[in-house]
Amino acid sequence: MPDVVLEETQAAIREVPGTCLSLLGLSHRSAWFQSVVEEAEEHFRALLRLPREYHVLFLQGGSTQQFAQIAMTLLRRGGPASDYLHTGYWSGKSLPEARTQGPVRVVWSGEADGFRRLPADAELDFQADAPYFHYVSNETVEGLQFHRVIGSDRVRRICDMSSDFLSRPVDVSRFALVYAHAQKNLGPSGVTVVVVHDDIVRSVPDGLPSMLDYRCHAEAHSSFNTPPVFGIYVTMLVARWLRSAIGGLEQMAAINASKAQQLYRAIDSSDGFYHGRAARSDRSEMNVVFTLPSARLEDEFVREAELAGLFGLAGHRSLGGIRASLYNAVTPASVAVLVDFMRDFQARAVQRVPEHVYA
Ligand code: PMP
User: Fold this and answer.
1) What total of structural domains would you count in the chain?
2) Which residues constitute the domain of residue 210?
3) pTM over 0.85
Protein backbone atom coordinates (compact mmCIF):
# COMPACT_ATOMS: atom_id res chain seq x y z
CA MET A 1 0.00 0.00 0.00
CA PRO A 2 1.17 3.56 -0.64
CA ASP A 3 2.44 5.21 2.58
CA VAL A 4 -0.21 7.89 2.53
CA VAL A 5 -2.97 5.26 2.31
CA LEU A 6 -1.46 3.38 5.27
CA GLU A 7 -1.39 6.60 7.29
CA GLU A 8 -4.99 7.48 6.46
CA THR A 9 -6.11 3.92 7.22
CA GLN A 10 -4.28 3.94 10.54
CA ALA A 11 -6.01 7.18 11.53
CA ALA A 12 -9.41 5.87 10.36
CA ILE A 13 -9.08 2.75 12.51
CA ARG A 14 -9.13 5.12 15.48
CA GLU A 15 -11.71 7.50 14.02
CA VAL A 16 -13.02 8.14 10.55
CA PRO A 17 -12.96 11.93 10.08
CA GLY A 18 -16.35 13.44 10.83
CA THR A 19 -17.97 10.29 12.24
CA CYS A 20 -16.67 9.90 15.86
CA LEU A 21 -16.41 6.16 15.06
CA SER A 22 -13.73 3.65 14.15
CA LEU A 23 -13.53 2.33 10.60
CA LEU A 24 -13.85 -1.13 12.14
CA GLY A 25 -17.16 -0.27 13.81
CA LEU A 26 -18.99 1.71 11.14
CA SER A 27 -22.13 0.16 9.68
CA HIS A 28 -22.40 -0.69 6.02
CA ARG A 29 -25.90 0.82 6.19
CA SER A 30 -24.55 4.21 7.28
CA ALA A 31 -24.70 7.23 4.97
CA TRP A 32 -20.92 7.40 5.38
CA PHE A 33 -20.37 3.95 3.87
CA GLN A 34 -22.76 4.64 1.00
CA SER A 35 -20.65 7.72 0.21
CA VAL A 36 -17.47 5.57 0.33
CA VAL A 37 -18.90 3.14 -2.26
CA GLU A 38 -20.01 6.06 -4.43
CA GLU A 39 -16.61 7.71 -4.24
CA ALA A 40 -14.78 4.44 -4.96
CA GLU A 41 -16.98 3.85 -7.99
CA GLU A 42 -16.48 7.40 -9.20
CA HIS A 43 -12.68 7.00 -9.03
CA PHE A 44 -12.80 3.71 -10.97
CA ARG A 45 -15.05 5.28 -13.59
CA ALA A 46 -12.75 8.26 -13.99
CA LEU A 47 -9.50 6.26 -14.00
CA LEU A 48 -10.86 3.83 -16.62
CA ARG A 49 -12.92 6.42 -18.54
CA LEU A 50 -15.71 3.92 -18.19
CA PRO A 51 -18.73 4.07 -20.49
CA ARG A 52 -22.09 4.41 -18.67
CA GLU A 53 -23.29 0.91 -19.53
CA TYR A 54 -20.73 -0.73 -17.22
CA HIS A 55 -21.33 -1.50 -13.54
CA VAL A 56 -18.54 -1.37 -10.98
CA LEU A 57 -19.13 -4.02 -8.31
CA PHE A 58 -17.20 -4.59 -5.10
CA LEU A 59 -17.65 -8.28 -4.34
CA GLN A 60 -16.23 -11.04 -2.13
CA GLY A 61 -14.97 -14.54 -2.88
CA GLY A 62 -11.78 -13.45 -4.63
CA SER A 63 -10.93 -14.01 -8.26
CA THR A 64 -11.40 -17.74 -7.69
CA GLN A 65 -15.10 -17.16 -7.19
CA GLN A 66 -15.19 -15.23 -10.46
CA PHE A 67 -13.76 -18.27 -12.29
CA ALA A 68 -17.03 -20.06 -11.44
CA GLN A 69 -19.45 -17.14 -11.34
CA ILE A 70 -18.68 -16.08 -14.90
CA ALA A 71 -19.35 -19.62 -16.14
CA MET A 72 -22.53 -19.90 -14.03
CA THR A 73 -23.78 -16.75 -15.71
CA LEU A 74 -22.88 -17.46 -19.33
CA LEU A 75 -22.02 -21.12 -19.91
CA ARG A 76 -24.69 -23.78 -20.52
CA ARG A 77 -24.36 -27.57 -20.43
CA GLY A 78 -25.16 -28.87 -23.91
CA GLY A 79 -24.46 -25.45 -25.43
CA PRO A 80 -21.38 -24.20 -27.31
CA ALA A 81 -18.03 -24.21 -25.54
CA SER A 82 -16.40 -21.09 -24.18
CA ASP A 83 -12.90 -20.32 -25.40
CA TYR A 84 -10.12 -20.17 -22.81
CA LEU A 85 -6.38 -19.56 -22.93
CA HIS A 86 -4.10 -21.65 -20.72
CA THR A 87 -1.10 -19.40 -20.28
CA GLY A 88 0.01 -20.22 -16.74
CA TYR A 89 -0.86 -21.23 -13.20
CA TRP A 90 -3.87 -18.95 -12.72
CA SER A 91 -5.53 -19.45 -16.08
CA GLY A 92 -5.03 -23.17 -15.36
CA LYS A 93 -7.03 -22.74 -12.15
CA SER A 94 -9.88 -21.09 -14.05
CA LEU A 95 -10.45 -24.10 -16.36
CA PRO A 96 -11.83 -26.72 -13.93
CA GLU A 97 -14.01 -24.08 -12.27
CA ALA A 98 -15.60 -23.19 -15.61
CA ARG A 99 -15.96 -26.87 -16.55
CA THR A 100 -18.25 -27.40 -13.55
CA GLN A 101 -20.81 -25.37 -15.52
CA GLY A 102 -20.36 -26.40 -19.15
CA PRO A 103 -17.98 -27.09 -22.02
CA VAL A 104 -14.65 -25.31 -22.28
CA ARG A 105 -12.33 -25.28 -25.27
CA VAL A 106 -8.67 -24.48 -24.67
CA VAL A 107 -7.67 -22.34 -27.66
CA TRP A 108 -3.98 -22.39 -26.80
CA SER A 109 -1.87 -23.83 -23.99
CA GLY A 110 1.69 -22.99 -23.02
CA GLU A 111 1.92 -25.96 -20.67
CA ALA A 112 4.24 -28.07 -22.87
CA ASP A 113 6.79 -25.19 -22.90
CA GLY A 114 6.53 -24.66 -19.13
CA PHE A 115 4.60 -21.40 -19.63
CA ARG A 116 7.58 -19.38 -20.80
CA ARG A 117 5.79 -17.39 -23.49
CA LEU A 118 2.40 -16.17 -24.64
CA PRO A 119 0.77 -16.96 -28.01
CA ALA A 120 1.08 -14.79 -31.11
CA ASP A 121 -2.19 -13.76 -32.80
CA ALA A 122 -1.49 -16.21 -35.64
CA GLU A 123 -1.62 -19.12 -33.17
CA LEU A 124 -5.13 -18.27 -32.00
CA ASP A 125 -8.37 -19.17 -33.68
CA PHE A 126 -11.57 -18.25 -31.94
CA GLN A 127 -15.02 -19.76 -32.30
CA ALA A 128 -17.69 -17.33 -33.42
CA ASP A 129 -20.40 -19.08 -31.36
CA ALA A 130 -18.49 -19.19 -28.05
CA PRO A 131 -20.54 -17.61 -25.24
CA TYR A 132 -17.35 -15.82 -24.22
CA PHE A 133 -13.56 -15.88 -24.43
CA HIS A 134 -11.56 -15.82 -21.18
CA TYR A 135 -7.92 -15.02 -20.56
CA VAL A 136 -5.58 -13.75 -17.85
CA SER A 137 -3.83 -10.48 -18.72
CA ASN A 138 -0.90 -11.05 -16.37
CA GLU A 139 0.18 -14.49 -15.18
CA THR A 140 1.30 -13.65 -11.66
CA VAL A 141 3.31 -16.82 -11.05
CA GLU A 142 5.25 -17.09 -14.32
CA GLY A 143 5.61 -13.34 -14.95
CA LEU A 144 3.96 -13.28 -18.39
CA GLN A 145 1.92 -10.28 -19.46
CA PHE A 146 -0.09 -9.52 -22.57
CA HIS A 147 0.86 -6.13 -23.98
CA ARG A 148 -2.17 -6.03 -26.26
CA VAL A 149 -5.86 -6.88 -26.12
CA ILE A 150 -6.53 -10.27 -27.68
CA GLY A 151 -9.63 -12.09 -28.90
CA SER A 152 -12.30 -11.36 -31.45
CA ASP A 153 -14.51 -8.28 -31.14
CA ARG A 154 -17.49 -10.48 -32.08
CA VAL A 155 -17.24 -12.68 -28.97
CA ARG A 156 -17.61 -11.41 -25.38
CA ARG A 157 -14.13 -10.83 -24.06
CA ILE A 158 -13.59 -11.55 -20.36
CA CYS A 159 -10.32 -10.94 -18.58
CA ASP A 160 -8.85 -11.77 -15.21
CA MET A 161 -6.76 -8.66 -14.50
CA SER A 162 -6.07 -9.58 -10.89
CA SER A 163 -2.38 -8.78 -10.98
CA ASP A 164 -2.21 -5.83 -13.37
CA PHE A 165 -5.51 -3.96 -13.01
CA LEU A 166 -5.00 -0.19 -12.68
CA SER A 167 -1.28 -0.59 -13.41
CA ARG A 168 -1.80 0.83 -16.93
CA PRO A 169 -4.65 2.22 -19.04
CA VAL A 170 -7.13 -0.31 -20.38
CA ASP A 171 -9.93 0.20 -22.88
CA VAL A 172 -12.69 -1.55 -20.95
CA SER A 173 -15.17 -0.96 -23.78
CA ARG A 174 -13.48 -3.89 -25.56
CA PHE A 175 -14.40 -6.24 -22.71
CA ALA A 176 -17.73 -7.62 -21.51
CA LEU A 177 -16.33 -8.14 -18.03
CA VAL A 178 -13.03 -7.62 -16.28
CA TYR A 179 -12.24 -8.59 -12.72
CA ALA A 180 -9.44 -8.23 -10.23
CA HIS A 181 -9.05 -9.05 -6.58
CA ALA A 182 -7.83 -6.07 -4.63
CA GLN A 183 -4.72 -7.51 -3.04
CA LYS A 184 -2.19 -6.53 -5.70
CA ASN A 185 -2.76 -2.98 -6.93
CA LEU A 186 -6.13 -1.97 -5.53
CA GLY A 187 -6.25 -2.48 -1.79
CA PRO A 188 -6.27 -5.17 0.90
CA SER A 189 -7.51 -8.72 0.38
CA GLY A 190 -11.23 -9.32 0.83
CA VAL A 191 -12.55 -7.23 -2.06
CA THR A 192 -12.86 -8.21 -5.71
CA VAL A 193 -13.67 -5.52 -8.24
CA VAL A 194 -15.84 -6.60 -11.17
CA VAL A 195 -16.46 -4.21 -14.04
CA VAL A 196 -19.29 -5.68 -16.04
CA HIS A 197 -21.36 -4.59 -19.05
CA ASP A 198 -25.06 -4.18 -18.39
CA ASP A 199 -25.84 -6.81 -21.07
CA ILE A 200 -24.32 -9.48 -18.84
CA VAL A 201 -26.07 -8.22 -15.74
CA ARG A 202 -29.39 -8.40 -17.60
CA SER A 203 -28.71 -11.89 -18.93
CA VAL A 204 -28.04 -13.58 -15.57
CA PRO A 205 -30.13 -16.77 -15.58
CA ASP A 206 -32.86 -17.16 -12.98
CA GLY A 207 -32.25 -19.57 -10.15
CA LEU A 208 -28.70 -18.62 -9.19
CA PRO A 209 -28.01 -18.10 -5.49
CA SER A 210 -28.20 -14.35 -4.84
CA MET A 211 -24.54 -14.03 -3.86
CA LEU A 212 -23.54 -15.41 -7.28
CA ASP A 213 -25.96 -13.18 -9.19
CA TYR A 214 -24.35 -10.01 -10.59
CA ARG A 215 -27.83 -8.49 -10.87
CA CYS A 216 -28.38 -8.57 -7.09
CA HIS A 217 -25.08 -6.85 -6.43
CA ALA A 218 -25.63 -4.23 -9.13
CA GLU A 219 -29.12 -3.41 -7.83
CA ALA A 220 -27.88 -3.21 -4.24
CA HIS A 221 -24.81 -1.08 -5.14
CA SER A 222 -22.43 -3.65 -3.66
CA SER A 223 -24.32 -3.80 -0.35
CA PHE A 224 -26.57 -6.79 -1.01
CA ASN A 225 -25.30 -8.36 2.21
CA THR A 226 -22.68 -7.02 4.61
CA PRO A 227 -19.78 -6.03 2.37
CA PRO A 228 -16.12 -5.84 3.45
CA VAL A 229 -16.32 -2.25 4.74
CA PHE A 230 -12.65 -2.04 5.66
CA GLY A 231 -11.45 -3.36 2.30
CA ILE A 232 -13.75 -1.16 0.24
CA TYR A 233 -12.73 1.92 2.24
CA VAL A 234 -9.01 1.26 1.69
CA THR A 235 -9.63 0.45 -1.98
CA MET A 236 -11.35 3.83 -2.29
CA LEU A 237 -8.30 5.52 -0.70
CA VAL A 238 -5.96 3.77 -3.16
CA ALA A 239 -8.10 4.82 -6.14
CA ARG A 240 -8.16 8.39 -4.79
CA TRP A 241 -4.35 8.27 -4.48
CA LEU A 242 -4.02 7.00 -8.05
CA ARG A 243 -5.99 9.97 -9.33
CA SER A 244 -4.79 12.75 -7.07
CA ALA A 245 -1.17 11.85 -6.23
CA ILE A 246 -0.15 9.85 -9.31
CA GLY A 247 -2.35 11.64 -11.84
CA GLY A 248 -4.03 8.64 -13.50
CA LEU A 249 -3.24 5.40 -15.27
CA GLU A 250 -1.00 6.84 -18.01
CA GLN A 251 1.29 8.23 -15.31
CA MET A 252 1.11 5.00 -13.30
CA ALA A 253 2.02 3.01 -16.42
CA ALA A 254 5.06 5.19 -17.09
CA ILE A 255 6.31 4.69 -13.52
CA ASN A 256 5.69 0.94 -13.70
CA ALA A 257 7.46 0.64 -17.06
CA SER A 258 10.55 2.40 -15.77
CA LYS A 259 10.63 0.21 -12.62
CA ALA A 260 10.44 -2.96 -14.72
CA GLN A 261 13.08 -1.68 -17.17
CA GLN A 262 15.50 -1.04 -14.31
CA LEU A 263 15.14 -4.60 -13.08
CA TYR A 264 15.17 -6.37 -16.45
CA ARG A 265 18.24 -4.34 -17.41
CA ALA A 266 19.99 -5.62 -14.28
CA ILE A 267 19.05 -9.20 -15.20
CA ASP A 268 20.11 -8.84 -18.84
CA SER A 269 23.45 -7.26 -17.96
CA SER A 270 24.41 -9.94 -15.43
CA ASP A 271 26.30 -12.19 -17.91
CA GLY A 272 23.79 -14.96 -17.34
CA PHE A 273 24.04 -15.01 -13.54
CA TYR A 274 20.42 -13.90 -13.36
CA HIS A 275 18.20 -15.49 -15.97
CA GLY A 276 14.78 -14.06 -16.86
CA ARG A 277 12.16 -16.80 -17.18
CA ALA A 278 9.70 -15.29 -19.64
CA ALA A 279 10.19 -14.65 -23.37
CA ARG A 280 11.32 -11.03 -23.71
CA SER A 281 8.29 -9.85 -25.66
CA ASP A 282 5.93 -11.25 -22.99
CA ARG A 283 7.76 -10.08 -19.90
CA SER A 284 5.53 -8.83 -17.13
CA GLU A 285 5.99 -5.34 -15.73
CA MET A 286 4.32 -6.50 -12.51
CA ASN A 287 6.05 -9.80 -11.71
CA VAL A 288 9.69 -10.15 -12.66
CA VAL A 289 10.52 -13.84 -12.44
CA PHE A 290 14.13 -15.02 -12.70
CA THR A 291 16.50 -17.74 -11.62
CA LEU A 292 20.05 -17.95 -10.32
CA PRO A 293 22.63 -20.63 -11.23
CA SER A 294 21.47 -23.00 -8.47
CA ALA A 295 18.66 -23.51 -5.96
CA ARG A 296 21.23 -23.10 -3.19
CA LEU A 297 22.18 -19.64 -4.48
CA GLU A 298 18.50 -18.75 -4.75
CA ASP A 299 17.97 -19.66 -1.09
CA GLU A 300 20.96 -17.56 -0.11
CA PHE A 301 19.67 -14.71 -2.26
CA VAL A 302 16.30 -14.70 -0.51
CA ARG A 303 17.88 -14.96 2.96
CA GLU A 304 20.41 -12.20 2.38
CA ALA A 305 17.83 -9.99 0.71
CA GLU A 306 15.75 -10.13 3.89
CA LEU A 307 18.75 -9.03 5.92
CA ALA A 308 19.02 -6.09 3.52
CA GLY A 309 15.34 -5.22 4.11
CA LEU A 310 14.01 -6.75 0.87
CA PHE A 311 11.10 -9.12 1.52
CA GLY A 312 8.82 -11.41 -0.48
CA LEU A 313 11.32 -12.32 -3.19
CA ALA A 314 10.92 -16.13 -3.19
CA GLY A 315 9.19 -17.44 -6.30
CA HIS A 316 5.74 -19.03 -6.15
CA ARG A 317 5.76 -22.40 -4.37
CA SER A 318 4.83 -24.17 -7.63
CA LEU A 319 7.83 -22.79 -9.53
CA GLY A 320 10.69 -21.82 -7.21
CA GLY A 321 13.23 -19.24 -8.38
CA ILE A 322 12.88 -15.57 -7.56
CA ARG A 323 9.93 -13.27 -8.14
CA ALA A 324 10.05 -9.53 -7.62
CA SER A 325 6.54 -8.09 -7.72
CA LEU A 326 6.52 -4.45 -8.73
CA TYR A 327 2.93 -3.52 -7.95
CA ASN A 328 1.82 0.12 -8.07
CA ALA A 329 2.85 0.92 -4.50
CA VAL A 330 6.43 -0.33 -4.97
CA THR A 331 8.53 2.80 -5.43
CA PRO A 332 11.28 3.28 -8.05
CA ALA A 333 13.64 3.88 -5.09
CA SER A 334 12.97 0.42 -3.66
CA VAL A 335 13.59 -1.15 -7.09
CA ALA A 336 16.94 0.68 -7.14
CA VAL A 337 17.77 -0.85 -3.74
CA LEU A 338 16.97 -4.30 -5.13
CA VAL A 339 19.13 -3.72 -8.23
CA ASP A 340 22.07 -2.63 -6.03
CA PHE A 341 21.59 -5.69 -3.85
CA MET A 342 21.56 -7.96 -6.93
CA ARG A 343 24.85 -6.50 -8.24
CA ASP A 344 26.45 -6.85 -4.84
CA PHE A 345 25.17 -10.42 -4.36
CA GLN A 346 26.46 -11.44 -7.79
CA ALA A 347 29.89 -9.94 -7.16
CA ARG A 348 30.20 -11.87 -3.91
CA ALA A 349 28.82 -15.13 -5.34
CA VAL A 350 31.08 -15.03 -8.39
CA GLN A 351 34.12 -14.93 -6.11
CA ARG A 352 32.96 -18.18 -4.52
CA VAL A 353 31.35 -20.02 -7.47
CA PRO A 354 33.44 -20.89 -10.54
CA GLU A 355 32.13 -19.33 -13.72
CA HIS A 356 31.39 -22.65 -15.43
CA VAL A 357 28.69 -23.30 -12.83
CA TYR A 358 26.47 -20.73 -14.43
CA ALA A 359 27.98 -20.05 -17.85
N1 PMP B 1 -6.02 -14.81 -10.82
C2 PMP B 1 -4.79 -14.30 -10.72
C3 PMP B 1 -4.15 -13.70 -11.95
C4 PMP B 1 -4.11 -14.31 -9.49
O5 PMP B 1 -2.87 -13.80 -9.40
C6 PMP B 1 -4.74 -14.90 -8.37
C7 PMP B 1 -4.07 -14.96 -7.01
N8 PMP B 1 -2.96 -14.24 -6.80
C9 PMP B 1 -6.03 -15.42 -8.52
C10 PMP B 1 -6.64 -15.36 -9.75
C11 PMP B 1 -6.77 -16.03 -7.35
O12 PMP B 1 -7.23 -14.99 -6.55
P13 PMP B 1 -7.97 -15.17 -5.16
O14 PMP B 1 -6.98 -15.72 -4.19
O15 PMP B 1 -8.42 -13.78 -4.81
O16 PMP B 1 -9.13 -16.07 -5.38
Assistant:
1) 2
2) 3-246
3) yes
